[in-house]
Structures are given as C-alpha cells and as structure tokens.
C-alpha cells in the first residue's frame, strides 16, 4: 500500500536578526508534529526557511552596511545551523531569494494578472515596515501599529497593483466556516471568521496592494519592472514553490498543516486562500494558530535585554532539554508566559528528577541483577490519549499524560521496594517496569528524539541492561 503523505510547514522567518526563542518554539513544535506523523508511518515533507525580501530586511542590511544578498546569506546560515543543532528534521530549508522561487512567483502573479484579478490604482495610506502590512487608519494606535516602533509606520502615496481580494473573500469565508480549511484551535477560527464577516458586511475589506514602487529589494512585477512584488505575496508562495523546486509537488501538495503564530494567521487564511483560489490551486487542509508568550511577564525585546536565544537554551538544558521545555510551553489557546525560572523548574522536576531518575535507578538495578530485557512487541505504541493529543497538536498535554506514567512507575518502584526483591520476584516487577519505560520513550520520541533513542537502546530486548549515563545533568547555575 502506498504510504500516506503529510506536508507540514513553519513560517519562514524574516532574515533580519538571529533566531530567538519564539522562532525556536514554533519550529520545535512543528518538528515534534512532523516526527509524530513519520513515526506512525507517513511520508513527511517538512518545510522551514527564511523570508528574505521586503523593506524590513533591506533596511536592516543597510543599517549594517551590507548588501542585502550578502546580509540574508549570513542570517539564513545562522538559522540553518541552529535548526541542525536542535535536531530539526526539516526536508527543505526554503529561501525566497532562490532564483527558482523568483521565477515561480513571477509566473504565478502573471497568471493572476492576465486573468484580470490584478489592476492598477493609487494607494494612499499607512504601511508598517515591522509588520510588512498596509494599515487602515482606524486600526492604528496613536498613529502606529502598536507592536513595532512608531517610526516604522509610514504614510505612503503611490501607484500600486491591487489583487481582487474582495472577489475571493466570500468564498474563503464559506470554506473556513465549513471547516474545509480548518483553523485550530476553534477560538482562533472564530476570531478570523468574525473579522472577515464584518469586513465583508461593512464593505470594508478592500483589495490587497501587491506591489511597492519604492522598493528595490524584491521580486519584480513581471509586466512592470519598476515595481516590486509585495513581500507577503512572494513569501506565502514559498510553500508552493518549494515543492515545485524539489519535484515533490504531485506527491505532497496541498499542505496538511501550516503552523503559524497568531500575528500572521490572517495572512495564512484570508490572503493565502484567496491567492490560491485565484491561481486555481488546491487549498491547504489546516492552519494551526499558536498564541504568543511573554518572558517573565514582559514582551521580549532587545531594549529590555530579555531576549532568549535557542543557543542559550541548549547550553543550559542540552538539545533535548531545550526541546522539552519549549514543547511543554506551547501557548495553545491563550497567551502564555515563559522564562528561565519556569524552564528550570520543569527541567529539574520532570526531566532530572522524574524521567532521568527513573531510567538511572532502574538501569542500575537491572545491571546488578544481570537482567536481560525480554522481547516485547507492544512497546511501539502511542498511549490512546497521547495519540489524540499529538493529532490535535497539544504537545503540552502529551507531556502531562506521559509524565503521569513516569510518576506511576517511580511510585511503584518505591512502594514495592524493588531493590529488595530477588530472582523471579525481581524479574516479574522489572519486566513490567522496563516495558513501561520503553513505552514512555516511544511516546516521547517526537519531542526528545535522541534521548528516547538512548533509553530504548539501554533497555533493548534480549540484551543485558547496563547502567545508563546521566540523561539530564543537574543544572549548574551560579
Ligand atoms: N516572515 C514572516 C512569515 C512569513 S510565512 C510565509 C514572519 N516572520 S517572523 O520572523 O516575524 O516570525 C513570526 C513567527 O515567529 C510567529 O508567527 C510565531 O510563530 C513566532 N514568534 C515570534 N515571536 C513569538 C512569541 N513572542 N511567542 C510565540 N511565537 C512567536 O512573520
């Protein structure tokens, strides 16, 4: 039988700065989802990458006195390195300055233009460079977007090309409402549906400007080279062009899920679907919208000096420790709060103490008894509830569930005083406990793959068990 396919994407991050914990969180969570689907036997295509055009990138390059291509090459390399270190299992690292991507985007926009869905008009209004988004005056807070620096919101009057978003929006609304394009969690779906409904009713949506005439750093509009294609039009199409470039389009299109933060859910629903409807392409099946987090109650920002980088996390907790604390902090429904004290606590209690201790004491006892792990065919299974949580991307719930099993195993060891047991009695309890540990390792594999592998090989069937090395060393914090 042909294997089922699964195509999953993260946002492609702006190639402006070094990766931070927000990018790592989304990427690690998407990776765990991708690995889960591979573990249940699917053929997985997992896209990550960088978004390399637009004003934001070009201004940043300028401020560092670099030419933009040289600048984005440097940033993209940093992203690639850190994802490799974090053991991200991506199939492709997509970059929008890839010449083939440019060709595909040009063809796509040209087709939409030729069928009459793009027209020229004057644009007069606000643009936030930080959001790379045209803003309505009514949405501004004291003259700016409310998220980025006030001077990033600028007034523009220029000739632009407009895409007929209003033509496709009613169909998009219908598709989202009917869950043909499913947005989860449901609360995030409701937010988008009500915003879109209201905009359609009030005739307030407007068409989307898809070009900028004052921007050099961008893919050119094919029929009018003085204009650059709006960066979001180019960026969203990366999910499509990547498969074409990789000759995997027939196999994997459309995407099973795009994982995105709530800041960009509008682009990935209303705008992306309209673009695909206009191009006559099949639509992605799901959008997984995550919430945002603050750090110890504050917004993460360079000026506050509270930016956490993925490499900070790795040096403190190791690769799997970092992956674990990130996956367990996924802000699923509401905005969350993270920070070292919360991470430390999780690492100490759930990893060093509970899981680490379980593996270390059981493997030590096994070694003392010359215990050989028995053949066990039932360990490669997801616990029923865990499977459901992975399917719904509730990684924090996966961990809660698996931790309960770890706690039960630890309690059993203590209550039954396993260290006092001998021969047959020892074997009987330990067979059960070892089988439990192997199941735990299997269930955690998408989140902490290397450690799970280690645990599985310590307790490999029909082999003598030897004492494990320390899996999660004590935190060494001054
Ligand atoms: N380049 C666009 C995406 C284009 S996709 C076709 C972009 N890039 S970004 O670098 O700003 O990354 C945004 C994403 O980073 C968010 O959607 C979210 O997944 C992640 N996060 C950034 N800060 C975050 C938090 N404070 N909390 C949680 N996730 C965060 O937008």
Structure, described:
The protein has 478 residues and is of the alpha/beta class. Among the domains are: 5-164 and 207-253, 3-Layer(aba) Sandwich (Rossmann fold); 339-458, Isoleucyl-tRNA Synthetase, Domain 1. The chain is built from 16 helices and 15 strands. The protein has helices at 21-39, 55-63, 68-85, 99-114, 165-177, 186-201, 231-236, 238-245, 249-252, 265-279, 310-328, 340-369, 384-391, 395-415, 423-444, 449-458, and strands at 5-14, 43-51, 92-95, 118-128, 133-135, 153-163, 182-184, 208-209, 211-212, 220-221, 224-229, 257-261, 286-290, 293-295, 336-338. The strands form 4 sheets. It has a 6-stranded parallel sheet, sandwiched between helices. The chain is elongated, with a radius of gyration of 25 Å. The chain starts with a strand and ends in a 20-residue tail after the last helix. The mean pLDDT is 95. 5'-O-[(L-methionyl)-sulphamoyl]adenosine binds at residues 11-14, 22-23, 25-26, 51, 235-236, 238, 260-261, 263-264, 292-293, 300.
How would you sum up this structure in a few lines?
By secondary structure, this protein is an alpha/beta fold.
Tell me the fraction of residues in β-strands, as a range. 15-25%
Flag low-confidence runs.
Answer: none
General shape: elongated
Reading off the top of the CATH hierarchy, the class of the domain at 5-164 and 207-253 is best stated as: Alpha Beta
Structural class: alpha/beta
Tell me the helix content.
Answer: 40-55%
Task: Could you tell me the CATH topology label of the domain at 5-164 and 207-253.
Answer: Rossmann fold
Q: How would a crystallographer describe the biggest sheet? A: 6 strands, parallel
Bound molecules: 5'-O-[(L-methionyl)-sulphamoyl]adenosine
Number of helices: 16
Mean pLDDT: 95
Rg for CA atoms: 25 Å
Termini separation: 56 Å
Strand order of the largest sheet: 3-2-1-12-13-7
Strand segment count: 15
What is the second-level CATH architecture of the domain at 5-164 and 207-253? 3-Layer(aba) Sandwich
Supply the CATH superfamily name of the domain at 5-164 and 207-253: HUPs
């Amino acid at each position: 039988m042909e294997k089922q396919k699964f195509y999953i994407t993260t946002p492609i991050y702006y190639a402006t700065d070094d990766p931070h914990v927000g990018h790592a969180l989304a990427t690690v969570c998407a990776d765990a989802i991708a690995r889960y689907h591979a573990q249940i036997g699917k053929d997985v295509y997992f896209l990550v990458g960088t978004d390399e055009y637009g004003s934001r990138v070009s201004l940043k390059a300028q401020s560092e006195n670099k030419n933009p291509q040289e600048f984005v090459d440097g940033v993209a390399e940093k992203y690639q390195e850190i994802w490799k270190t974090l053991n991200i299992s991506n199939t492709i690292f997509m970059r929008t300055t890839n010449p083939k991507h440019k060709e595909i985007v040009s063809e796509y926009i040209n087709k939409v233009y030729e069928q009459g869905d793009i027209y020229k008009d004057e644009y007069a209004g606000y643009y936030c460079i930080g959001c790379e988004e045209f803003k309505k005056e009514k949405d501004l807070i004291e003259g700016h977007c409310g998220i980025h620096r006030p001077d990033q919101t600028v007034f523009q009057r220029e000739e632009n090309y407009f895409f007929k978003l209003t033509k496709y929006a009613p169909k998009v609304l219908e598709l989202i409402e009917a869950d043909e394009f499913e947005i989860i969690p449901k609360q995030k779906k409701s937010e988008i549906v009500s915003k879109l409904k209201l905009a359609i009713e009030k005739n307030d949506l407007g068409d989307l400007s898809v070009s900028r005439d004052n921007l050099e750093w961008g893919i050119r509009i094919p029929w009018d080279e003085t204009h650059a294609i709006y960066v979001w039009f180019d960026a969203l199409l990366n999910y499509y062009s990547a498969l074409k470039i990789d000759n995997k389009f027939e196999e994997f299109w459309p995407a099973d899920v795009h994982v995105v933060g709530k800041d960009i859910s509008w682009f990935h629903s209303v705008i992306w679907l309209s673009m695909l409807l206009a191009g006559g392409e099949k639509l992605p099946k799901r959008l997984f919208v995550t919430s945002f987090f603050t750090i110890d109650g504050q917004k993460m920002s360079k000026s506050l000096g509270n930016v956490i980088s993925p490499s900070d996390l790795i040096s403190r907790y190791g690769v799997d420790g970092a992956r674990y604390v990130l996956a367990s902090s996924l802000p699923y429904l509401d905005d969350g709060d993270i920070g070292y004290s919360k991470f430390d606590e999780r690492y100490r209690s759930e990893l060093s103490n509970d899981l680490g201790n379980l593996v270390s004491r059981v493997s030590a006892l096994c070694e003392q008894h010359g215990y050989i792990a028995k053949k066990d065919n039932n360990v490669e299974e997801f616990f029923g509830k865990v499977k459901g949580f992975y399917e719904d991307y509730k990684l924090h719930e996966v961990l809660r569930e698996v931790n309960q099993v770890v706690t039960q195993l630890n309690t059993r060891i203590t209550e039954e005083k396993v260290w006092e047991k001998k021969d047959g009695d020892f074997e009987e309890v330990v067979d059960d406990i070892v089988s439990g540990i192997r199941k735990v390792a299997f269930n955690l594999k998408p989140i902490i793959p290397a450690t799970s592998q280690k645990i599985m090989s310590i307790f490999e069937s029909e082999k003598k068990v030897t004492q494990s090395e320390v899996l999660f060393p004590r935190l060494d914090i001054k």
